[in-house]
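Notes from hallway chat w/ T.B., transcribed later so I don't forget. T.B. wanted the structure written out for a chain they're using in a teaching module, and asked if we could keep both sequence and structure tokens in one place. Agreed to drop them here.
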Amino acid sequence: MSVEAREARQPWILLSPALSAVGLLLFVPLGFILVYSFWLRTASGADQVGFYLDNWRAALSDPFYRDILLNTLKIAAITTGICALMGYPAAYFIARARGNKAILLLLLMLPFWISYIIRTMSWINILGVSGALNSAMLWLGIVDTPVQMLYNEPSVILGLVHFLLPFMILNVFVSLEGIDTNLEAAANSLGATRWQSFVQVTLPLSLPGLAAGGLLCFVLGAGTYITPMVLGGPSNAMFANLVYEAIITQLNWPLGSALSLMLLAVLGALVLIYNRYLGMAQLMKGLG
């Protein structure tokens, strides 16, 4: 074997453990899910092996699934917008902080040390009929009777923002950290105000991080089922809840497989669009 051929094979040899893990843990399970989606659940409860399009026909043509998918995308978009509005100022403050940046980042990471389910259920103790907020308003005389603040769409969005905001802040922070502060100083020396230098220099250069945070928040928000299950009502189910209901409650694995692949295809298309116009390099920075 020539030296050139050996050098060409060396990267693949080094990557083979990682590629094998990805293949076994991602592509093989996806292959099983794809096969399951063409099976058929019979009236007796058994799965009939074969190639049937009934599950896909139901998933793609039933207005029930379409409406919940659109509602899922709407909730994810609203959540992403709120995270962007709240996360950018926080990320800017951390990036421009002097001397205590590590402490601020540690405080930002603290929520990840607590289970996502516990963090979500904590809102019940805050927003519930006998929760802290209602108790405070009753004590202050603001309301005479407890206000129902749970089990609706705003409470689901609130829970998702609580969960996803750190992802947005971290991505924007990484982007802001990569901007040379001398560029702002140069803009100020040329007569620009601090606001003008931010709008014309800092903001455009940080947009890739904002877009990467938006993509993460949107995909994670659209794919979650814990938050709408805990904080939402029957009319606030998201698409992942349909997958959970089909597989766990109804034990209809073929239909659940088709629904999960449908959601994966929609979110995968959004990732491809992002990669087409912005690239995945900034997203990898945010994840790192």
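Follow-up for T.B.: The mean pLDDT is 86. Might be a good example for the class.
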